[in-house]
Each structure stands twice: as structure tokens, then as C-alpha cells.
Amino acid sequence: MVPGRPLTRTGDTGAEGIGVREARVSLETVRENAVDTTLATQLCSLMLSDDYEDWLEAWELLRDHMPDSITTFDALDELLDLEAEACSINDMLYDLDEELSNIDLDDLSLIAKRAELARWVYIHFPEETELNLGNFRGPEAEALWELGQREQAETLYQELIEVFPNFAWGYIWWGDQYWMSDWSYEYAPDYDRAESLYRRALANPNLDNRVYVQERLDDIYDEKEHPERREKIKQTRLKYIQRRKNLE
After folding, report:
1. Residue 31, pLDDT above cutoff 50
2. pLDDT tens-digit readout, 66-113
């Protein structure tokens, strides 16, 4: 937190005026430090919980109180002295995203919440590593795709691979939507589109994690050779999709 700026009056000159201003600065610093301590204690209590709803509350506290000057996870940990309480912003944000992606999402608002969380992370921590920024740009696009906002999701995936062209998972996540998502089971898989994205990734000589992209291609070839396997999965997926539609 940045200490509050004391008010100054015309005529505050000399030793007495300077002393008054310094006293005010000290008072404001004490107040701000007290707020930080209280916030850190509250955050750690929520972050150490096993309930994702507590993690959501912790994130909302961060969203409402984090100063703009903080641009990395480590800087926020240091500001709030979270390591002293065995807490980590990095771990909490990843755990929350994973939980929101894995729970039975009959509540579509939680999918929207996942998109909101992901966007907040990569916008407010611009100096984070490529890995961390990529790992939150992707979930935003995935969540929007699940919400039926395919055009917006496509735009975000395109931005992801443009900003981080060597980040293999940007291509993988985008390609996966065309044959592994609910949309692909409700309508039809677009293997050609998925393959083109995977091959686009492999054409980059500087691509990281190439092996995972190749694995996706191999999986597509296998599925195309054994369509009966997809049919078995399709029946379960369609029941789930219909259940969600009934709740909308």
C-alpha cells in the first residue's frame, strides 16, 4: 500500500510546519500498515481453507484492495508478507482456476467467474512470466467458449498465440475446442481445424513442449480410426449438455 499524502496548508514553513507534516505521514503509514496486516491475516485464513468459495472470497479481496503498483505474484506476496503465513498468491490462483474448471458446472455463473478471474490475473500482473500469463489467458477463452461466446473466445485464442507464439498450450487449447469440447459433441468435431492449429504450432522451430502438440495429433488420428469410441463418450456428454440447457 502507498502511504496517504498529508494535507499541506499555505504558511506551513519552518521547523514546526515540517514536523507537523512528518507526523501526519507517520500516522498515515501506521494506518496503512495496520490495514495491510488485517488484510493479510484475513486473506491467509481464506486461502488455507479447503473450500473454493473461500478462495473466491480471497480473490475478491485482492481484486478490491491490490494497489496498481503491484505487477507480479511475488511482489504481492512480499507486500502482504504472506510467506510468513505459508500462503502463496500463485498457488491460490492456480488452485481456484483448477477448481472452477473441474467442479460440476451446472451454475453457469461460475464459468463466467472463471473467465473474470483469468482476465483479472493477466491484466493486473503484466510482468509475470510467459508461463503464468499464458496459463490464465487460455482459461478465459475456454470459459467463454463454454458459455457459447465462440467468436470472442476465438479472438482471445488468436491473441494468445500472437502474444506468446512459442507457448504450445495456446495452440493445444484452441485446437482442443474443435474436437474435445461440449460444442464438438453437440454438433460435430472439426478435426481438420484442430489439426491445422497443431501443425501451425509444430511449424514454429522455437515452440516449447512440442511433444504435447504431437500427442494431440496422434490422439486425433487414433479417434478417427476408432469412431465407435467417440460414440460411447458422446451419449454421456449429450446428457450433460442437455441437463445444463434445462437450467439456463
Report:
1. no
2. 899 999 999 999 998 888 888 999 999 999 999 999 875 567 889 999
- Can you give the pLDDT at residue 39? 83
Of 123, 166, 118, 172, nearest to 141 (Cα)? 118
Cell of 5: 499524502
Q: Please say whether the beta carbons of 33 and 25 come within 8 A.
A: no
Other Cβ atoms within 10 Å of 229 Cβ, number:
11
Task: Count other C-beta atoms under 10 Å from residue 47's C-beta.
Answer: 25
The three cell numbers of residue 148 are 457459447
Residue with cell 511475488: 74
What are 103's three cell numbers? 467442479
pLDDT of residue 4: 37
Q: Cα 115 to chain center, whole Å?
A: 7
- According to DSSP, residue 2 is labeled P
